[in-house]
Each structure stands twice: as C-alpha cells, then as structure tokens.
Amino acid sequence: PLGRGGTDGFENLLGRGGTDDFENLLVKGGTDGLSSWIHDHGIGMGQLYGDSSDMSYQVIERMAMLPPANIVPGNYQLEAIYLNRKTGENYKIETPNISLKIDPKAIPVAAPELDLVTQLRTLSVNLPKGINGLDPVFAEVGRINQYDPTQDYLIQAEKALEYRLKQEPNRLDLAYNLGLANVLQQDAKGSIAALKIVTQLDSKNPNAHAYLAFVYLYNLQPKLAEQALKPALELKPNQPEYQLLKGVAQLMQGDVIQTWKNLQVLFK
After folding, report:
1. Strand, coil or helix: what is 25?
2. Is 0.85 surpassed by the pTM of this model?
3. How confident is the model over 220-241, as pLDDT tens digits?
4. CATH number of 117-267
C-alpha cells in the first residue's frame, strides 16, 4: 500500500483479502497541503505468502513511520491507497478516523526499526553529493539486503515511486529515490528514465549528469554517455571522476588518442 501519516499513532494498519490482493500500500499524512510525508511499502512488508489465492487473510502491521525533520507541527490525518504492482490499478482504502499530532516538544518513545523501503528513501538523500554521498549509501544497502535476500523491497519502492512521480512530477527527492531503486536492481532502462528526470530537476548539479552518463556506460551506450556528461564537465571541468568517465566513453567508441589526452589530466 501507499501511505502517508505519522509514527506511533498509525502503527496498526489492517488489511483483508486474498494473497493476490496484497500488493503495495501507499500511505500519506498531511495537513491541508502545508506538509506531508509518505510511508509506502508492500503489505506485510512484501513477505505475505499464502497457500491459495482464494483464501482471505488479515494483516496487522506494527511499524514506525518517519516524518521529515522540518515537518510543520500540527494534526495529521492518515490517507491510504492500494496500488497493484502488476497492473497499476489503484484506489483509496478506508482508514480509521485517527489523527496524529506532530509536536517537536513531545518526549521520544521507543519505536521499531524502519522498514526497508523507508530506509532506502533516507539513503537516497545522499545522492546529490556525488562520490562523498555514495559510500554510505552502498555500505548501508549491503546491510539492508541481508534482511531481504530477494530484494523485493526495491520493487516495492520502484512501483510506489513511479506512482508518486506521476502525481508530483517535480519532486526531486522521489526522482533520485527511483533512480537508486532501479540502479540497485541493475535495471539500466529504468535507471536511465529516472535519471533523465533527475537531470531535468537538478540541472545545476554536475553529479546528476554524471550518474546518467555512468548508467549509459553500463548499458554500453558510450556516445550517449559522452553527451550526458557534457553539462557536468561544463559545470565542473576539473573533476577527476568526470574526466575518467569521459575517457571510458571515448575508449569504448574506439577513440584511443582522445582517451589518452583526457586521462593524462588525472596524472598531472
């Protein structure tokens, strides 16, 4: 399901249906547009397995949510949407009439560890930093993957983020998050599509263009990689990593002389 909402007030989320019905839940909490946050994940964390699709089940989720640090204090209401990851079908789910008060002065209480989709979203905020932001991302991803050997959380994130971006196409954080989810699935086509959005929304950040160029190289498209890298080199011409990417792109196109000239910059 996809959801928006708060922490302790919305820990229990009930769902009923057959195994085929338990796809993604989108949850959202908001105060008349002043502020909101999302808590999108597969129902039962994507770990619901049944013997028959015509049987009914009840799912009780006890989870922590993570509102943004700068969220506007006030009362928040839960909104939930069902999203079928296979068909894209979506519709609102009836939720209890519960409000959650965000109070920065409230005493902290113990909460469960955040779900993997939320953890992935918190990691993606480091991506605009480039190399310095990537090290903590991949270190944590290695740890997270131990909890989900099938890495279904990446599919949950991908489907939810695709839906969210259609609703809010200017959300840079969602675009970076979608790009990361696709990269970790080694989905070059999906990664390129997401990173193209990133370069449009974050056009002044050379790292955004470098990410797109890197994925083009991974997908054996060196000419497109070189083109994607041009804005990065214009914004930061002396960045060694960008020069290296350009050299690799030229080498893959058979331009050995120009490759050598570019790579010489790295050894000066």
Report:
1. strand
2. no
3. 999 999 999 999 999 999 898 9
4. 1.25.40.10
